[in-house]
Design brief:
single chain; PCYCGC domain-containing protein; PCYCGC; 150 residues; alpha+beta; 12% strand
């Protein structure tokens, strides 16, 4: 599944006012639990297909995105530790997943995930992808999340 970033016109992080059942609110973000990583939360219903695809792909690439920092400022504002946290707050042992809507409001989060996943699917190593992301976002962006070095 290739993910195209073209067509993403989100340019930063905003706020959501949506209310759904089985949700939590934390740091201005909405969190919603579903039965599995294959089931998107209701807050995704009206989002563009490319954003939905990035969310589904992010959930399937946990090992990758937990090693990739985010440069939108969510490390400080939301306590995120890596780019995976922008999409998924928590994975449960029984397969349930607690999604986070932060990525729906932030073009930086979406671009980093899509680029990382595309490169990974093209055969790039996680270490090389991390180096590319760090280089691409080192100037003009917020401090990276405190993602441990590889």
């Amino acid at each position: 599944m290739g993910i195209l970033v073209s067509g993403l016109f989100l340019t930063g992080c905003g706020a959501s006012e949506s209310e759904e059942s089985h949700v939590e609110h934390a740091n201005g973000d909405l969190r919603e639990e579903t039965a599995s990583a294959d089931v998107l939360p209701a807050f995704m219903d009206e989002k563009p297909e490319n954003v939905q695809n990035i969310y589904l792909a992010a959930a399937q690439h946990r090992d990758l995105l937990e090693n990739i920092p985010c440069y939108c400022g969510c490390g400080e504002s939301a306590g995120h530790k890596d780019n995976y946290d922008c999409f998924v707050h928590e994975n449960h042992d029984d397969g349930r997943i607690m999604w986070d809507d932060h990525g729906t409001k932030c073009g930086v989060c979406l671009e980093i995930a899509a680029s990382s996943i595309n490169d990974y699917q093209q055969g790039k190593s996680i270490k090389d992808i991390r180096a590319d992301i760090d280089e691409a976002y080192e100037n003009g962006y917020a401090e990276p999340t405190p993602t441990p070095a590889l």
